[in-house]
Design a protein that fits this description.
The complex is a heterodimer of chains A (368) and B (388).
Chain A (H helix, E strand, L loop, with lengths): L6 E2 L16 H10 L11 E5 H15 L3 E5 L15 H5 L4 E3 L4 H13 L3 E5 L10 H8 L2 H4 L9 E6 L14 H5 L5 E3 L4 H13 L4 E6 L6 E5 L2 E2 L7 E4 L4 E5 L3 H14 L4 E5 L2 E3 L3 H11 L2 E8 L4 H13 L8 E5 L10 H4 L3 H9 L4
Parallel strand pairs in A: 3-4, 3-5, 5-6, 6-8, 7-8, 12-13, 12-15, 15-16
Antiparallel strand pairs in A: 1-10, 2-9, 7-14, 11-13
Helix pairs in contact in A: 1-8, 2-8, 4-5, 9-13, 10-11
Chain B lengths: L1 H6 L34 H26 L13 H8 L7 E3 L5 H6 L4 H4 L13 H4 L10 H16 L5 E6 L6 H12 L4 E7 L2 E2 L2 E2 L12 H5 L3 E5 L3 H16 L5 E6 L18 H8 L3 H11 L5 H22 L20 H17 L9 H11 L1
Parallel strand pairs in B: 1-2, 2-3, 3-7, 6-7
Antiparallel strand pairs in B: 4-5
Helix pairs in contact in B: 2-3, 2-12, 2-13, 3-10, 7-8
The chains are: A alpha/beta (368), B alpha/beta (388).
Protein name (chain B): Pyruvate dehydrogenase E1 component alpha subunit
InterPro entries (chain B): Alpha-ketoacid_DH_E1_comp, DH_E1, PdhA/BkdA, THDP-binding
GO molecular function (chain B): magnesium ion binding; oxidoreductase activity, acting on the aldehyde or oxo group of donors, disulfide as acceptor
Chain lengths: 368, 388
C-alpha cells in the first residue's frame, strides 16, 4: 500500500493535491504549530508503529509541547486506556495532565468544555463508540454550538477520541459506527485516520485546531503497523488522499473500510478492472475537490462504510458527488454499507461487515 | 474500604428548617435558625437592596415589553431576587457565573448592559455579551448542562493555579437531570472550587416540586456526594449572601464544592406563553407575595435606620432610569447581518460554508430594492403600503 504524503517533519511539506491552497489557512497554521521542529533531537529513525502506538506518540508529543494540553477520561490514567492508546502518559506527565475521571461521558465532555473555556486543550476519550451517547447533548448542544453562540468569542479546542466500528468481536455497544450523528452537527469537525502516519499527524493537527474535533479511531485497525519516522506530518486533515490510482472506478472509504477498499482494488485488478481508492480522512469537512477530481477521471464511484446504510454518511457522499459530478457519471453511485439492523453479536458480525467480495459484487451490478 | 471512608471529613448536614437571618416580617432572626451565620454589614445589605430593586424594575419592564411584542420571550425572576442577587453578589471580579435562562437579573447585577442581556430573548442572536469581559457563560437553556461547564472551568483554573471560583445557578427541575448529578460528583471528586446554587422556586414550568424530588430538601443531595449542603430561605437575601459567601470563600481556600438550596417562588408565569392558573392557585401566589424578599429587607433597613426616605427615593429613581434605558434600547430595532450566520461556526474556514454564504449574499442582493426606492423614507412606506 502506498501512502502518498508521508514526509518526515523538518523536510519540506509533502506533495498535496492540486488546489490545496483552498483547504484553509488556519488548517496549515495549526499543522505548523503542532509540529515545531526539534533542533536538538537526534536524527530521526525509521520505526515500525501501530495506529495505537502512533496515537500514543502524538498524545505524548502534544503533552510535551503544549502545557495547556490535558488528557482525561475513563481508564486513561495508570491503565493507559483499554486499547493502551494513553499508555505511560500518566507516569510521564503526572496526575495534573493525565487522569482518570469519574465514569460519566456527559460529565467528561461537559467538564472538558469548561476547561477549554479557561484556555486548556482537553483531549478526552469515550471508551467505546456507543458509550459516547450519554454525552450527546453536551457534544451537539454545547461543544458544537458554543463558538457560534458567542460570535466566535469562545472557541472550544476539545478533541474527543472515540474508538469506533466493529471487527474485533466486541459484545453489544462496542462496535457502532456513529459518524453520521456527528457529521450532521454543524460546528464539529469529524476525522478518522486509516494508517499510523495519519493517526499521528491528524491527532496532532486535531489537538492544535481551535475547533472541536471528533476523532474517530478505527479499533479493528489499532494494531495495523507501518514503518515511519516520527514526528511525521501527512497532508492537512481536511484533505482526502488518493491511496491507489485507477482509471475505471473510484472507491470512497474511510477509517476501517480503507483496508477493505484496497483489498477490493487488488482483487479487481486481477479481473482487469483499474480501481482508484480515496481515503476521505475527514468526514466533516468533506473534500469535494479531491473526490470530485477522482470521479471525473473514473466516471463511477462507490462509497464503503460499516454504519447502517439508511441515512448513513454514504448517502451524503452519493448525493453531493452526484450533484457536482452528474455529467461525469456513467452509473449511479453505490453504497456498500452495513445492513439496516443493529450491529450484530461477535459470531454474526462477519455477515454484517462490508467485505472486499461484497464490494466487487456491488461493482458487478453496474452495466459496464 | 474503611480507610477510604475514614479519610473523608463528615460533611455539614443541611438543616431541616431553612437558614434565615431576617424573618418574613423584616425582623432579625436570633438563635439556631441562623446556623451560625451572621448578618452582613448595613453597607452590604444596602447594596443588596439596591441591586434587588434594580433587578425587580428591570424584570417588570422586560415582562411588559415582552407582552407588547418587543421580545420573543422572557423568563421572569420576579420574587426570586433574594436568591439571585444574594448568590451572585458573593462573587469576586475574577470569579465566574454560569447562569440559566431565568437568571437575567443576575447578569444585570454583574454589569451586563440590558441590550446585551436581552439579545437572545428578542431573537437577535443566541447571546449578546462577551463571556470573557463579564466572566459569565451564556445563559443555558438546556437544564443542568452549564453545571458541568462550571466544574470544568473551575478545575481548569485550579490546574493553572488561579484562585477562581465558579458559581452555577440551577432550578429545582434541573436537579432531576443526569448532568446535575454528574456535576455534583465530578466537582466533589476533583474538589473543584464550585458553588452550586439551586433556586427551588416550586415549579418546573407546571410540575410542582413534590413531583420532582422525594428528598427532604435538595440540599440533602450534597451528603451523598461528600460535600457540604445548606438549605436557605431564598427570599432572605441576607441569608443567601452570607451562606453563598462562605461557600465561595471555602472554595477559594481549597475546600471544594458546596451545594446550596434557596427556597423561593416564581411569582410570574414560566414565560409569557405559560398559563399558571392551570396548575397553581391564586391563594398560593398571594401567600408567597407576603414573603417578598425586597419588602422584607426594606422593613429591616428602615427599622435599623440604614434606609432613609431620601435614599429610598434615590434608588427608586435609578431603577426608573434603568427601565427607561431598557425601553429605549428595546424600541430600537437591531441591525442584523444575515451573512453573519456563517461567520462564527468554525475557526477553520470551510469551502462549503463559504459557498453557502455566497449563495445567501446573492439572494439578498437580488431581493434588495433598486436604489431609487430607498431614496426617501416616504417611498419605503409607500412601497410597504402597496405590498399590503
Amino acid at each position: 500500500m502506498t501512502i502518498v504524503d508521508r514526509t518526515a517533519l523538518g523536510s519540506p511539506a509533502g506533495p498535496t493535491p492540486a488546489g490545496s491552497a483552498d483547504s484553509g489557512s488556519a488548517d496549515s497554521g495549526s499543522a505548523d504549530a503542532s509540529g515545531a521542529p526539534h533542533p536538538a533531537a537526534p536524527a530521526p529513525a525509521l520505526i515500525s508503529l501501530s495506529i495505537a502506538g502512533a496515537l500514543n506518540a502524538a498524545l505524548r508529543d502534544a503533552l510535551a509541547d503544549d502545557p495547556s494540553v490535558v488528557v482525561f477520561g475513563e481508564d486513561v490514567g495508570p491503565l493507559g486506556g483499554v486499547f493502551r492508546v494513553t499508555d505511560a502518559l500518566h507516569a510521564t506527565f503526572g496526575e495534573s495532565r493525565v487522569w482518570d475521571s469519574p465514569l460519566a461521558e456527559s460529565g467528561i465532555v461537559g467538564t472538558a468544555i469548561g476547561m477549554a473555556m479557561y484556555g486548556l486543550r482537553p483531549v478526552i476519550e469515550m471508551q467505546f463508540d456507543a458509550f459516547s451517547y450519554p454525552a450527546f447533548e453536551q457534544i451537539t448542544s454545547h461543544l458544537a454550538k458554543m463558538r457560534n453562540r458567542t460570535k466566535g468569542r469562545v472557541s472550544l479546542p476539545v478533541v474527543i477520541r472515540i474508538p469506533y466500528a466493529g471487527g474485533i468481536g466486541g459484545v453489544e455497544h462496542h462496535s457502532d459506527s456513529s459518524e453520521a450523528y456527528w457529521t450532521h452537527t454543524p460546528g464539529l469537525t469529524v476525522v478518522t485516520p486509516s494508517n499510523p502516519a495519519d493517526a499521528y499527524s491528524m491527532l496532532r493537527e486535531a489537538i492544535a485546531s481551535d475547533d472541536p474535533v471528533i476523532f474517530l479511531e478505527p479499533k479493528s485497525r489499532y494494531w495495523a503497523k507501518d514503518t515511519l519516522v516520527l514526528p511525521v506530518r501527512t497532508a492537512p486533515m481536511a484533505r482526502a488522499q488518493v491511496l491507489r490510482e485507477g482509471a475505471d472506478v473510484t472507491l470512497i472509504a474511510y477509517g476501517p473500510t480503507v483496508k477493505t477498499a484496497l483489498e477490493a482494488a487488488a482483487l479487481a485488478e486481477l479481473e482487469g478492472l483499474s480501481v482508484e481508492v480515496v481515503d476521505l480522512r475527514s468526514l466533516s469537512p468533506f473534500d469535494d475537490e479531491t473526490v470530485g477530481a477522482s470521479v471525473q477521471k473514473t466516471g463511477r464511484a462507490a462509497v464503503i462504510h460499516e454504519a447502517a446504510q439508511f441515512g448513513g454518511y454514504g448517502a451524503e457522499v452519493a448525493a453531493r458527488v452526484t450533484e457536482r459530478q452528474f455529467f461525469h457519471l456513467q452509473a449511479p453511485i453505490l453504497r456498500i454499507a452495513g445492513f439496516d439492523v443493529p450491529f450484530p453479536s461477535p459470531k454474526q458480525e462477519e455477515h454484517y461487515l462490508p467485505t472486499a467480495e461484497r464490494v466487487l459484487a456491488a461493482l458487478d451490478t453496474w452495466e459496464w | 474500604m474503611n480507610d477510604v471512608v475514614a479519610a473523608r471529613a463528615e460533611p455539614v448536614r443541611p438543616t431541616l428548617k431553612p437558614i434565615r437571618l431576617i424573618d418574613e416580617k423584616g425582623a432579625p432572626v436570633k438563635g439556631a435558625e441562623r446556623a451560625g451565620f451572621t448578618l452582613p454589614s448595613p453597607e452590604v445589605l444596602l447594596g443588596l437592596y439596591r441591586r434587588m430593586v434594580m433587578a425587580r424594575r428591570f424584570d417588570v419592564q422586560v415582562t411588559a415589553l415582552t407582552r407588547q411584542g418587543r421580545l420573543a420571550t422572557y423568563p421572569s425572576a420576579l420574587g426570586q431576587e433574594g436568591c439571585e442577587i444574594g448568590a451572585v453578589s458573593s462573587l469576586g471580579e475574577n470569579d465566574w457565573l454560569f447562569p440559566t435562562y431565568r437568571d437575567s437579573v443576575a447578569l444585570l447585577t454583574r454589569g451586563v448592559p440590558p441590550v446585551q442581556i436581552l439579545s437572545s430573548f428578542r431573537g437577535e442572536w443566541h447571546m449578546g455579551f462577551d463571556p470573557y469581559e463579564h466572566r459569565i457563560s451564556p445563559q443555558a437553556t438546556p437544564l443542568a448542562t452549564q453545571a458541568l461547564h462550571a466544574v470544568g472551568l473551575a478545575t481548569g483554573a485550579k490546574l493553572k493555579g488561579d484562585e477562581v471560583v465558579a458559581l452555577t445557578l440551577l432550578g429545582d427541575g434541573a436537579t432531576s437531570e443526569g448532568d446535575a448529578h454528574e456535576a455534583f460528583n465530578f466537582a466533589s471528586v476533583w474538589q473543584a472550587p464550585v458553588v452550586f446554587v439551586v433556586q427551588n422556586n416550586g415549579y418546573a414550568i407546571s410540575v410542582p416540586f413534590s413531583k420532582q424530588s422525594h428528598a427532604r430538601t435538595l440540599a440533602d443531595h450534597a451528603i451523598g456526594y461528600g460535600m457540604p449542603g445548606y438549605f436557605v430561605d431564598g427570599n432572605d437575601v441576607a441569608a443567601m449572601y452570607a451562606v453563598t459567601s462562605a461557600a465561595v470563600q471555602n472554595a477559594r481556600a481549597g475546600g471544594g464544592p458546596t451545594l446550596i438550596e434557596g427556597l423561593t417562588y416564581r411569582i410570574e408565569s414560566h414565560t409569557n406563553s405559560d398559563d399558571p392558573t392551570r396548575y397553581r392557585s391564586p391563594h398560593e401566589v398571594a401567600q408567597w407575595r407576603q414573603r417578598d424578599p425586597i419588602a422584607r429587607l426594606e422593613t429591616y433597613l428602615r427599622a435599623s435606620g440604614a434606609l432613609s426616605d431620601a435614599l429610598f427615593d434615590e434608588i427608586a429613581a435609578a431603577a426608573e432610569q434603568l427601565a427607561a434605558a431598557t425601553r429605549d434600547a428595546m424600541n430600537t430595532e437591531p441591525v442584523l447581518d444575515p451573512l453573519e450566520l456563517f461567520d462564527h461556526v468554525y475557526a477553520t474556514e470551510r469551502p462549503a460554508l463559504r459557498e453557502q454564504r455566497e449563495y445567501l449574499a446573492r439572494e439578498l442582493a437580488a431581493a434588495e430594492p433598486a436604489p431609487a426606492d430607498v431614496s426617501s423614507t416616504e417611498s419605503i412606506s409607500t412601497a410597504s403600503g402597496s405590498i399590503a
